[in-house]
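Quick question, first post here. What does this chain look like in 3D?
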Amino acid sequence: MIDVPVLSIDVSKSKSVALIFKRYQEPLSKPFSFLHSPRDMSRLTEKLITLEFETGKRPHVVMEATGNYSKPIMAYFQDAGYKVVVLNPLQTHAEKKKSVRKIKTDPIDANRIAQVYYLNEFTVAKPVEDHILELQNLCRQYDGFNTLYTETQLRLRSVLDLLFPKFESVFSHLCSPTALRVLSSFPSPAAILSATRDQIMECLKPAKKSQRWNELKTDELILAAKESLPYNRAQQSNIRVLRMYIELLLSQQNILTDIRAQMVYWANFSPDYPLLRSIPGVGEATATTILAEIGDIKRFPSAKQWVAFAGVDPSVFESGKFKSSHNKISKRGSPFLRKAIYQATVAGISNRVGGPLNPTLSDFYLRKIDEGKAGKVAIIATTNKMLRMIYGILSSQQPFSTSK
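> Answer (accepted):
Ran it through. Tokens below.
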């Protein structure tokens, strides 16, 4: 059992509850609240200095992970030189379930957090390198903006289905700069049919394609306009909304491009980035996200723990003599890492003109299919293979090779 004084904190948004322990089951005072302000944090530090003087031992600070709320407090105490332990809410929840009565108060939670810490062994949260923190923040913001971008595309398509149903068949990428520029200038079949060929081709010129391409696209736009059956009600308001979505999409594209450039900039501070990029199927966005979520591969003693952190390890269900053979993945750990690894795996097994992008992963995937595994099950198994591949590459500091 750990024999050190502990400051246990139940973190909330702007005000938290703390409880100071001299040792296990020996609180020095009743639970007290404090604001997340420099003044109150300074007073809390003074209490810890006094506690250290009285016990001769430097206190540990223990709290539950609460997303953004706990990060400033954790950083404050780390900068002050204290060892900080951040508990997984699942661990404190397990302790809560032991109680017969269902009680939920901040003081009780602060006490429970200390109990969990004293009765178990936990790793002290190490300060993360600045470039990894920058990268992690950028990657998560990129994921958020990308979600907004996808939602805006769907909304654009819903309006376009009313105004110009056949327009999307003309361009392979509806949200390409050329397609959006043409759509903004000619948002309806009537706008295309009332324009001259020269006006349409002038709108296509910034794409810097051949004259022949411009002529073919003009013919396709005119044909699409003739074959479209638009909704001829509330057209002016729909056109106005359509152009607003176009402006929003262009703005989001610029934001995503800027964030992605920053992601690559910070990723290049790590020697692990080129190692990740050496794996076929791992692109810029997935490599930076994987790196941001890993931090340092050495914090995972084994590949098994690394796989569990991604939440791709199988859950276990056994009761009596029953042992389930159809277990889903745990989906615990980092959802951002899980998403990036899955995308990299799908890219790796996808077929190209010259064959699969990553033959090692593709062969493994096909072998699982031959064993009778369903498609999704085979992909998850291959994702697990990708995680172990990454662990081996980063642990050995050797780039990908077909022999891995």
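The first helix runs from residue 38 to 55.
DSSP finds 16 helices and ten strands in the chain.
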